[in-house]
Structure formats: structure tokens, C-alpha cells
Design brief:
13-stranded mixed beta sheet; Phage tail protein beta-alpha-beta fold; Jelly Rolls; single chain
């Protein structure tokens, strides 16, 4: 009997995994607990339930029907298993994108190194998706769902938008229609051309953009008067390389477009634009120098 109480406490997050890890089928129980967290909990009015129980209580005690209880547990177990098996997971690798088509014909494009989940079979009952990383969404006309991240949630209806949730940054950009951004207890409605950014739990800015879609979707990056170090940081992220610009004049700034899927072309554009040369130390490290230092 003690194990049953422990299991209930564990499901309610009152005790840790170690307290019940000797229970048979613990790995399956962990999966059921994880995915059941997706389900919205119904409202529970304990006073109303108690009142109903009192009104229907009879003086004659009835024996508890264990066969009925067992049947309910079996049904719940099967339902949980079906729920788990119906969850679809997608992961985009470094330097690659992944396109996902949702059951309502909405399209999701995952940026590199991103993860996305949704429940396929239960889509009509639970339209909550999960994102870790960055993704661009094109929501089918008249359709709606919620994007849940570790930082906040975005509720949408027939729109195009971009969500970035990496490390301490949570950024949402609306390209069409409108989206509701929920961060902690704060709600913001973004219209077409607006974006909002949070970092380390604080709101940084809410402003406008003028692009039709994210630059990373078209595999390009646009820069306007940014420092060369910022450009190199983007290259390092896109191509998983190391760039040394300590021997380059610090006041160099860049305005232009660079590809995110061709390292050789990106390096060639930068070197010709700013009269720089680069040396290849190995396949993952490059050193830039000014022409006059050659």
C-alpha cells in the first residue's frame, strides 16, 4: 500500500525519482508522467464535489469494486500509451533545416539545431506544440494552435511568425496577422511587422521589422552597419568554425548580405569588400589580416 501512495506522490511531484525507481516498469511510468504534462488539467472544485458526495451518500456502506478500479487503470494506461506513441518529434541538425507539416496543413520550418514536437493523433483535442530552438511558422488560414517554449508561449491564428528560444533569449517576430506572446504574467499582442525580445527574464525591446520572412529561411543574413566582430560571430554559428580577427582594423563595419549555406562564398565576399586576406589554419579555423599586413 505504501508503494501506491508513493506513486501518487511522485506523479504529483511531491517526491523524487529515487523514491520509486525500484517500481516495476519505472521507465514507462516516467514517459507517461512526462507526456501527461502536455494535457490541460480540468478545474476541480473540491467544495462542490464534497457537497455532491454528501447528497448521494447512503447509510449502507458498499464494498469497493476492485474490478472496476482495475478496468479504469487499464483504460488510463492504454490511453497514456496511445498518447505517447502519437507524439511526433523533429530535430534539425547543424547547418540544415527541417520542414514539418502539421495535421491542419500549417507549415513549420526549423532552423538549425532545433527541436519541435506535436501530438498527431490528438491534434483536434490538444493543439499545443513544443519548440526548443528557432522556427518559422506559416499557419493555415483559420487554424490556431499554441507554441510552447521553455521561456514563454505564443498563441496564433492564421498568421506567419518566427519564434526563437535559445539559452536566455526569447524572441517573437510577427510577419502577418497577429500573435499573442505570453511571458511569465505579461501578455503582448504583436501585429504584422512587430517583434518583441526578452533576455535573462527581462524585456529588451519591442519594435518593427520590414522583411517578409526571416533571413535564415532563405539561407542568407542581412547586415547594416554592424561591427565585423558581430558578422564573424554569425559565421562561427552558421558554420561551426573559429575566426580570428585580432589582426584586422577594429573600426571595420559591414553592410550587405552573406549566405548561410556557403562558407567559401561568405569568406570571399568579406575579404573582397574589406581588402582583407585570410589564412586557413585547419578546416575549422581561419585568421583574417588587413591587406597592408601581408
Amino acid at each position: 500500500m505504501k508503494k501506491k501512495y508513493n506513486l501518487a506522490d511522485w506523479l504529483d511531484n511531491k517526491i523524487d525519482d529515487q523514491s520509486i525507481e525500484d517500481v516495476s516498469g519505472f521507465d514507462t511510468l516516467k514517459k507517461i508522467k512526462y507526456y501527461s504534462g502536455w494535457l490541460e488539467k480540468p478545474d476541480f472544485n473540491k467544495d462542490k464535489v464534497l457537497e455532491n458526495l454528501k447528497s448521494t451518500r447512503t447509510t449502507k456502506k458498499k464494498k469497493f469494486n476492485w474490478s472496476i478500479a482495475a478496468s479504469i487503470l487499464i483504460i488510463l494506461g492504454i490511453s497514456s500509451l496511445i498518447f505517447i506513441l502519437s507524439v511526433k518529434d523533429f530535430t534539425s541538425q547543424i547547418n540544415s533545416q527541417e520542414t514539418v507539416l502539421l495535421p491542419d496543413d500549417s507549415k513549420v520550418i526549423l532552423a538549425q539545431n532545433s527541436k519541435f514536437q506535436f501530438n498527431n493523433w490528438f491534434w483536434n483535442f490538444d493543439r499545443t506544440t513544443k519548440l526548443n530552438g528557432q522556427a518559422y511558422f506559416e499557419v493555415a488560414k483559420g487554424k490556431t494552435f499554441t507554441v510552447k517554449t521553455n521561456s514563454g508561449k505564443v498563441k496564433v491564428l492564421g498568421t506567419r511568425f518566427d519564434v526563437k528560444s535559445r539559452d536566455s533569449i526569447f524572441k517573437v517576430v510577427c510577419y502577418e496577422g497577429s500573435v499573442k506572446v505570453i511571458f511569465k504574467n505579461e501578455e503582448n499582442i504583436l501585429k504584422k511587422g512587430q517583434f518583441i525580445t526578452y533576455q535573462n527574464g527581462k524585456k529588451l525591446e519591442q519594435s518593427n521589422i520590414y522583411n517578409e520572412k526571416p533571413e535564415w529561411v532563405s539561407k542568407t543574413h542581412q547586415f547594416k552597419g554592424v561591427s565585423l566582430s558581430e558578422v564573424m560571430q554569425q559565421l562561427e554559428q552558421d558554420y561551426q568554425i573559429e575566426v580570428d580577427i585580432t589582426q584586422v582594423t577594429e573600426d571595420k563595419r559591414f553592410s550587405g548580405t552573406l549566405p548561410s549555406d556557403s562558407l567559401s562564398l561568405a569568406l570571399d565576399i568579406l575579404s573582397k569588400t574589406y581588402q582583407m586576406n585570410f589564412s586557413v589554419i585547419n578546416e575549422n579555423k581561419f585568421i583574417f589580416v588587413d591587406d597592408d599586413q601581408e
